[in-house]
């Protein structure tokens, strides 16, 4: 009986060790994919981050604020569908900088990112203001968007 347990444990450990080795292997480089994503030799590229901050306008009317936020969310979806925005989301906690949310735009141009953020109804209404920063990240970042729809039951 002890021999059976020993053999079973040995096989299990060998299997886990092999699985770990397979997982650690580096994926094969895909030049076509790298080129299509605009990747440099490190698999990275330039983006622009826009940090949404608390704006100067306070809208007390809940219905009006609801419409502004509905337009804000629709605009995010439109920009994502156009391939302009690759990440968007709110911050979950208040912070001393008054950052409310963040966009990562698929451009290295701060001017282009500013044009895109100005299409946001909440920015237009003054509910949000913004700060713009150049950023360097994985060129594969936009690929997650195609899977987001598969994991979300509802849109906010």
CATH architecture of the largest domain: 2-Layer Sandwich
Q: Spans of 5+ residues with little confidence (pLDDT < 50)?
A: none
In the CATH hierarchy, what is the class of the largest domain? Answer: Alpha Beta
Q: How would you sum up the major sheet?
A: 4 strands, antiparallel
Describe the structure.
Residues 63-135 form the YCII-related domain. Belongs to the YciI family. It holds the Pfam family YCII. InterPro entries: Dimeric_a/b-barrel, YCII. By secondary structure, this protein is α+β, with helices and mostly antiparallel strands. It has six helices and four strands; from the N terminus they run H-H-E-H-E-E-H-H-E-H. It has two domains: 2-28; 35-151, Alpha-Beta Plaits. The protein has helices spanning 2-24, 31-37, 62-81, 110-117, 121-124, 145-151, and strands spanning 44-54, 85-90, 99-105, 128-138. Strands 2-3-1-4 form a four-stranded antiparallel sheet.
Topology readout:
Elements: H1 2-24, H2 31-37, E1 44-54, H3 62-81, E2 85-90, E3 99-105, H4 110-117, H5 121-124, E4 128-138, H6 145-151
Put the structure in a nutshell.
This protein is α+β, with helices and mostly antiparallel strands and 156 residues long.
Task: Looking at this protein, list some descriptive labels.
156 residues, alpha+beta, Alpha-Beta Plaits, 2 domains, 44% helix, 22% strand, globular, YCII, Dimeric_a/b-barrel
């Amino acid at each position: 009986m002890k021999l059976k347990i020993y053999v079973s444990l040995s096989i299990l450990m060998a299997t886990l060790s092999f699985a770990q080795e397979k997982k650690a292997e580096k994926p094969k480089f895909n030049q076509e994919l790298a080129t299509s994503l605009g990747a440099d030799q490190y698999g990275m590229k330039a983006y622009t981050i826009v940090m949404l901050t608390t704006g100067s306008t306070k809208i007390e009317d809940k219905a009006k604020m609801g419409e502004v936020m509905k337009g804000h969310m629709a605009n995010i979806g439109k920009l994502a569908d156009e391939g302009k925005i690759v990440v968007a989301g709110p911050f979950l906690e208040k912070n001393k900088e008054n950052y409310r949310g963040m966009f990562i735009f698929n451009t290295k141009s701060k001017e282009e990112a500013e044009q895109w953020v100005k299409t946001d109804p909440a920015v237009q209404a003054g509910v949000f203001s913004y700060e713009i920063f150049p950023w360097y990240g994985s060129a594969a970042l936009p690929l997650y968007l195609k899977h987001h729809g598969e994991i979300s039951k509802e849109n906010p």
